[in-house]
Amino acid sequence: MERLKDKVAVITGAGSGIGRAAAVLMSREGARVVADRSSDGAEETAGLVEAAGGRALPLTVDVTEEDSVAGMVAAAVTEFGALHVLCNHVGGTDPRKDLDLLRMDMDEFDRAVALNMRSTLLGARHAVPHMIRAGGGSVINTASVAALVGDVLQTSYGAVKAAVVSMTKSIAVQYGPQRVRCNAVAPGAVVTPALENNLPEEVVTSLKKGNALPYLGSPEDIGHTMVFLASDESRYLTGQLLVVDGGMSMQSSAAPGRRAMLPR
Ligand SMILES: NC(=O)c1ccc[n+]([C@@H]2O[C@H](COP(=O)([O-])OP(=O)(O)OC[C@H]3O[C@@H](n4cnc5c(N)ncnc54)[C@H](O)[C@@H]3O)[C@@H](O)[C@H]2O)c1
């Protein structure tokens, strides 16, 4: 399988969770670059990529700092000679501080803007010129189903992920003529360290009930979608949001209760 043959991919947040899964899956298809804030995480992911027969460059980056992002992209191009794919994957908020409107920690709001929006913009801003030089490319932004619905908490998270969806469309429109595609993935509940460390067991159980499918997602479920978006199989797809959520966001809120009433 060489769906990403000869492509160079930078994946931020590849030191754990979904980003790591995407890096390993992409490595089965071509060369890649791994970047992450924690150098241990990046080194570990690079080890997994190489064990799977791929090539990886572990880098330490802070995606909220423009110089750091510029350095990451430059290092990728120096090492592999080009850049075709960028996964702007780092994001999230601290659910203990990202609360409702009245109790919102405003420092956390600013951090959310930097970690999700600013990082997405910076990554694309530095990667797109190399993609144009390479004759085209694919920017893949990580949004969330939180961008699509209102919630009682995590006000910032929903808002910044909705902004990621908006930026995705603008980038797609602006650089489509140069064959640079830009799409976003909206994961639903995915079992990663971020989910396991931040959410109490009862919330995880309620998330499962909210899905049409009887299970939560794995990092690989999202990684496979990213491989598709990185590959030329999706060459006619741009400016879109692919919702990969086990049916969570399309299911009627009445469905779990009605399902419980169905004859077994
Ligand atoms: N896990 C889920 O259920 C879920 C659902 C929807 C969306 N998402 C989104 O997926 C993305 C990652 O989620 P995950 O569950 O894989 O998270 P994760 O915590 O497992 O991984 C995040 C990675 O980002 C790195 N990172 C954090 N801050 C950084 C910075 N400033 N610079 C560079 N690297 C940094 C961390 O070191 C870590 O390796 C986020 O954008 C998140 O909003 C996750």
Automatic annotation (TrEMBL):
SUPFAM superfamilies: NAD(P)-binding Rossmann-fold domains. Pfam families: adh_short_C2. The keyword Oxidoreductase applies. It comes from the Bacteria. The keyword Iron-sulfur does not apply. Keywords: Oxidoreductase. One of its GO terms (biological process) is fatty acid biosynthetic process. GO terms for molecular function: oxidoreductase activity, acting on the CH-OH group of donors, NAD or NADP as acceptor; quinone binding. InterPro entries: NAD(P)-bd_dom_sf, SDR_fam. PANTHER family: NAD(P)-BINDING PROTEIN, SHORT-CHAIN DEHYDROGENASES/REDUCTASES FAMILY MEMBER. Belongs to the short-chain dehydrogenases/reductases (SDR) family. This is SDR family oxidoreductase. It comes from Streptomyces albus.
